[in-house]
Give the backbone structure.
Amino acid sequence: FFLQLPIFLGVLPPPFLHLIIPGSTTKLAPTGFAPLAIGLALTLIHLISIPVTNTSVNPARSTGTALFQGGWAIQQLWVFWLVPLIGGVVGGLIHRALFEEHE
């Protein structure tokens, strides 16, 4: 089992969501658009990553499953905690670079 693909798929969703959520909740977005956009984004994330990692957008879900599985699952648990945090930081930096007004 290679960890490169789960790591790659773990880093991509947070920046994607950092662009979708603020973009769909601005005053320029149509009313009622945010739930649809965010829901479709999460659906896309799940559809892409289910075949690779059984999709765990929630690290707490991964932790519970790993504790019951034991062994190799606990050894790989760091991927489901650390990688989304890194992706969140990357997403925040991308959002700041693209959308925040510079003084």
User: Anything to note?
Assistant: The radius of gyration is 16 Å. The mean pLDDT is 82. The domain at 4-99 is CATH 1.20.1080.10 (Glycerol uptake facilitator protein).
